Amino acid sequence: MKSIIDVKNLSFRYKESQEYYDVKGITFHVKRGEWLSIVGHNGSGKSTTVRLIDGLLEAESGEIVIDGQRLTEENVWNIRRQIGMVFQNPDNQFVGATVEDDVAFGLENQGLSRQEMKKRVEEALDLVGMLDFKKREPARLSGGQKQRVAIAGVVALRPAILILDEATSMLDPEGRRELIETVKEIRKDYDMTVISITHDLEEVAMSDRVLVMKKGEIESTSSPRELFSRNDLDQIGLDDPFANQLKHSLSQNGYDLPENYLTESELEDKLWELL
Q1: Where do the ABC transporter domain residues begin and end (predicted)?
Q2: In angstroms, rounded to a whole number, what is the distance separating the alpha carbons of residues 231 and 263?
Q3: Of 56, 74, 161, 169, which is most buried, counting CB atoms within 10 Å of its CB?
């Protein structure tokens, strides 16, 4: 499958006087329609990397190619139209007096007819399960609802790439699960490419591939299953999955279980076999 994002030898530092680089010579690609998670400790360069891809920061060296076009100062605004970004704190993203006004805001600069704008707003809100709240003030929504509206605002613009920068980190477990399911549906319906910066294991588990960053460099690339089989997850800013913890406890109590990572349902099946 063809890449929609190619990053080559990318380097960046926030101050020229710094001796160290915040992002140092990284190279990776993202396939069209893929869900890529980027994980690592705070300060490892994850958010800086996606801000470089989105053109919010300018690289010191290296190149970024989005859908065949090299990102430059001249075309940054055109390329940014292909990318939608949802940040950690939804309160910082609201500009409209009502939910529907907020979702419509980004469309107003696209020269669409009122009818087409209304259609896109309703479709996007319906997709994230927020159509019944369209007249509501954003301030009256829960954290999870605010993030779903933020995603609707991005989806209405029909970008090819959706970037979630710690978008689930301020939500409770139920809100996180709902948001991940919403993104899963959007990706399927719109064939969207997703990049998520996250510490959330459920979000990582949904992805096709995981990039681990450490001190501005790419430490490894693997599938979620391969990642969860590692015994140093705490060293890269992740908790041990519940299934791993349970399997370890059962193994210590005499259950003969395989060493490789098992999902919760696979672990359940294995236990039924042993009974």
Answers
A1: 5-240
A2: 16
A3: 161
Q: Is residue 23 part of a domain?
A: yes
Alpha-carbon distance of 191 to 182, in angstroms, equals: 14
pTM over 0.85? The answer is yes
Structure confidence by residue, pLDDT tens digits, 108-153: 877 788 899 999 999 889 988 899 999 999 888 988 888 888 888 8
Residue at 94 is within a domain: no
Distance (Å, rounded) from C-alpha 92 to C-alpha 143? 12
DSSP 232: -
State the CATH number of the domain containing residue 41. Answer: 3.40.50.300
**Which strands make up the sheet holding 193-197, listed edge to edge?**
83-86, 161-165, 193-197, 35-39, 209-214, 217-222
Residue 109, in any domain of the structure: no
d(CA 90, CA 229): 33
Distance CA 222, CA 128 (A): 30
Are residues 53 and 8 located together in one domain of the fold? yes
Residues 203, 261: one domain?
no
